[in-house]
Structures are given as structure tokens and as C-alpha cells.
Amino acid sequence: MVMSARDLFDRRKRRNRYALNVGANLNPRLSVFRSSKNIYAQVIDDIKGKTLVSASTIETSQRNKKKTGANIEAATNIGSLIAERALKKGVKSVTFDRGGYKYHGRIKALAEAARTAGLKF
Predict the structure, then answer these.
(1) Can you give the pLDDT at residue 89?
(2) CA distance linking residue 33 with residue 101, whole number of Å
(3) CA dihedral 100, 101, 107, 108 (to 10 degrees)
(4) What's the pTM value of the predicted model, to 2 decimals?
(5) N or C: which end of the chain has fewer CB within 10 A?
(6) Environment class of residue 102 by beta-carbon count within 10 Å: exposed (0-12), middle (13-18) or buried (19+)?
(7) pLDDT, tens digit, for every residue of 44-91?
(8) In this structure, how many other beta carbons lie within 10 angstroms of the beta carbon of residue 81?
(9) Residue pair 80/116 in contact by the 8 Å Cβ criterion
(10) Hey, what domains does the chain have and what are their CATH numbers?
(11) First and final CA of the chain: distance in angstroms?
(12) Taking a C-beta distance cutoff of 8 angstroms, is the pair 70, 105 a contact?
């Protein structure tokens, strides 16, 4: 049986979420969503069920800077911005949730920028 791209994505997503839950990590989760035109990041406290901070390329401050939100440069900016906001809120360590996306390209750029800006994961 040939699996569709969506089935493979869902399988990677389940595998990643299972690994996050097995770790029973009490750190907030840095969740990333990538669309064809933008990239979004949120730091979520799963215990309280609240989003602590968020950043995306659709924010006015980011939209005015870039021609597109769908490249590595934009993902790097969002990574450093989410780390800056999280550190300001007192969150120093997170668990990285890449969803079903492969750790490559924009996802990797966002993660490395967040690490460089001082967020630990």
C-alpha cells in the first residue's frame, strides 16, 4: 500500500508527539507551524493549556520587513523573536515540537535561531 504525503506527515507528527509525551517533560512546548506563505511559532504550557508567547511572519512588524514569510531568513527572524519573547516571560527551557515537519530548511533555521538567542532545548 502506498501512503499519501498527508499520511506520512501524520505518522511523523504522531511519532514526534509520542516522544514528547514519553519524556514527561515539564517544560513548555515550542510548537512550529509552517504554511506555504508564513511560519508561526508558539510557546505553550500544556499543563495549564495556555499559550505563553507567540510569533509569526503575519505580524505587522514582521510583514513590513520582508517580501515573503516563506524563506529561511524569515524563519530565522521568527526564531530569534520567539526566544526573545519567551526569555522576557521567564521561560528559559522548552521542548521543541516540530509537528510532522522534517528538521530541515525553515524548521531547522527557526530552531537554531531560537537556540542562538538563548532558549534551551
Answers:
(1) 96
(2) 9
(3) 100
(4) 0.88
(5) N
(6) exposed
(7) 998 888 999 999 999 988 888 778 889 999 999 999 999 999 999 999
(8) 23
(9) yes
(10) 5-116 (3.30.420.100)
(11) 37
(12) no
| CA pair distance 121, 13, nearest whole angstrom | 18
Regarding beta strands 95-97 and 39-45, do their DSSP bridges make them parallel or antiparallel, or are they unpaired?
A: unpaired
Is the CB of residue 35 less than 8 Å from the CB of residue 68? no
C-alpha cell at 6: 498527508
Q: Extract the C-alpha cell encoding 86.
A: 519567551
Question: Cβ distance 84 to 36 under 8 Å?
Answer: no
Q: In angstroms, rounded to a whole number, what is the distance separating the alpha carbons of residues 28 and 96?
A: 9
SS3 call for 95: strand
Alpha-carbon span 108 to 121, nearest angstrom: 13
CB 53 within 8 A of CB 81: no
